Amino acid sequence: MLKSIDCGQLRADHNEQEVTIAGWVNRRRDHGGLIFIDLRDSTGLVQVVFHPDSPDIFATAERFRSEWVVQVRGKVRMRPNGTENPNLDTGAVEVVATEATVLNASKTPPFDVNQDAPVDELLRMRYRYLDLRRTHMRENLRLRHRIVKFIRDYLDDLRFIEIETPILIKSTPEGARDYLVPSRNHPGNFYALPQSPQQLKQMLMVAGADRYFQIARCFRDEDLRADRQPEFTQLDLEMAFVEPDDVIDMMVDLYIKMAQALAPQKELILPVPRLTYADAMSRFGSDKPDLRFGLEISDLTDIVAGSEFQVFSNVVRDGGMVKGFNAPGYGDITRRQIDELVSVARTYGAGGLVIIGLDAAAESIDALTTDHVRTPAKALSIEEIKAIATRVGAVPGDLILIAAGAQPKVEPVLGQLRLNIAERLGLNDRNKLAFCVVTDFPALEWLEDSQRWHAMHHPFTAPQDDQWDLLETDPGAVIAKAYDLAANGSELAGGSIRIHQRAQQERVFAALGYPQAEVDELFGHLLEAFEYGAPPHGGFAGGIDRLVVTFSDTAESIRDAIAFPKTQAGVDPLFGAPSPVASAQLDDLHIAIVTVDEPEA
RNA sequence: GGCCCGAUCGUCCAGUGGUUAGGACAGCGCCCUGUCAAGGCGCAGACACGAGUUCAAAUCUCGUUCGGGUCGCCA
């Protein structure tokens, strides 16, 4: 080894010891007659002192610059009285250099590696190896490692075994776009990269591996987001002979224990509440509600059903609903802020948004007069407004936000406004950790655009036992044995009990409108397997990258949880992928590139 | 595919029609023996690209490219 101890490990215990350390020059403080170097490795920093008594060593240290890689031999000693640095784990001691070697010089880095100040994303990715040297990123990678290790240890104790499944599999469209890999040996044929090992793990259940898991890479060729990368990592898990509560209880236990062990600095809100999908949508306008704060949504339909304010009463007459929630202390909102809220509502498909501002000068809700009320809905009577305010729990000085329309539109709009208001009021405290289990998801949802039913979770999800007959009569009403785990408004894991019998699986495919030929072609292998004693089974999958962000104190996006992420355009700026390939490679793959000129607009 | 935001020294920011385009950090030079975001003095260093408006553009408009956010999309 080129070092005898790690920089970050030096303590008073090592006083008087001869050590050899090596690392990067984090900072240099040159006093002319005395030079301090903060030497950094993956474990932390330690201060090295160079005295001019040994001119050769001193001259070497004078050349040191940021990010040079150096080796120092020296003696550990207690720092002189009054010069200890309490901000540093190694701050009680320093290393007095007796030998110094430059292992490798460094160009001046394109950004500061020794501080966590913001840097342009493109530059960070272009020089990712420098970005990863920074404290926050180093900590995020370490956190990620600990999460994965925790999961493996936890599941190993429960007799789960990790089984690798192939990365080159068969394309089964429906759902996300597949990444395709051309086959050299089979011209015109393609492998696909897995969007998840879903069907593979079900095959493993049939195979009798009744407690399976995998830290699995998944690929989806869709547009990116702050919380979405084209390749990402999931804890993929499946068990045989289980019912929903078995999986849910284990999932919750795993995540709680992980949070307690790996994010102890967060205020964990326990016990973890369980909501049905219908409740979550109704009360929070989201199937992954952020329960760090209230701002609960109330139904106002009965209050305004007969209102003079026809925007509301007409919606009720047409079978819609009117719902709203209270933003405490936000009654003095500016015109501009109102416009922003309306624009948020529009983005999520609302026709509009009605706000009611309550003047803080009013004595109470009972004492409200029209002078205390600021709203564009002039036709609302003061009695109606009082009833609304009481229902949503508003007091003078608050702001009430109301949306009207069909249920599937109103609730998500209010859900988004709720998050927006929470952000404005600073309620989304990143030091809190609020898990939440959502159950009883609908099995199918109607896609307006393509005019067909589609599986909300995936088509292998089992309907609840008493729901089967609805598949043919009222598909949208079918409730599935599906469940999610959310934390702070982010979906962390989702799963279900799967169908394990051929006839039942075919019945669901039929309800989804799949032609028989397509079912045979895409899912024949799975249906056949079900005929050979497939056990009842279920499981879940949870995103590792998002979990790192949730547990981290500094990660802002999923990119901060991944060593080598891609830009929003799916580009890797470090390696320059994707890139053209040599024509010989294309020939091997029987691929010809056809350039199509864009038609003039 | 749509919408929104952004692009100024190496980095991070300031700069709302006429500026010697400013600062901090980094870099370079000089000084400095107890600093730890060391300090002092000095030097060097930038308006993404292309059109347009204007007497005059970093600044206004359009486009391109790139980055970010988001809707669609993500079974």
Set down the secondary structure blueprint:
Layout (H helix, E strand, L loop, with lengths): L17 E13 L4 E7 L2 E7 L4 H9 L5 E10 L14 E12 L16 H6 L1 H4 L3 H23 L3 E2 L17 E3 L7 E3 L5 H9 L4 E9 L11 E10 L3 H19 L4 E2 L5 E3 H8 L13 E2 L1 H4 L5 H8 L3 E7 L7 H13 L6 E5 L14 E2 L7 H11 L6 E7 L1 H18 L7 E2 L1 E5 L4 E4 L4 E4 L14 H4 L8 E6 L2 E8 L4 H10 L4 H15 L6 E7 H8 L31 H6 L13
Parallel strand pairs: 3-5, 6-9, 11-18, 12-19
Antiparallel strand pairs: 1-2, 1-4, 2-3, 4-5, 7-8, 9-10, 10-24, 13-14, 14-17, 15-16, 15-17, 19-22, 20-21, 22-23, 23-24
Helix pairs in contact: 4-16, 7-12, 10-12, 14-15
The protein binds one RNA strand of 75 nucleotides through strand 1, strand 2, strand 3 and helix 2.
Structural features, described:
With 601 residues, the chain is α+β, with helices and mostly antiparallel strands. It has three domains: 7-104, Nucleic acid-binding proteins (OB fold (Dihydrolipoamide Acetyltransferase, E2P)); 138-274 and 458-561, Bira Bifunctional Protein, Domain 2 (BirA Bifunctional Protein, domain 2, 2-Layer Sandwich), CATH 3.30.930.10; 293-428, 2-Layer Sandwich (Gyrase A, domain 2), CATH 3.30.1360. The protein is built from 17 helices and 24 strands. The protein has an eight-stranded mixed beta sheet, sandwiched between helices. It has a five-stranded mixed barrel with strand order 1-2-3-5-4. Strands 13-14-17-15-16 form a five-stranded antiparallel beta sheet, with helices on both faces. α7 (277-284) packs across α12, α10 packs across α12 (407-424) and α14 (502-511) runs antiparallel to α15. It binds one RNA strand of 75 nucleotides through β1, β2, β3 and α2.
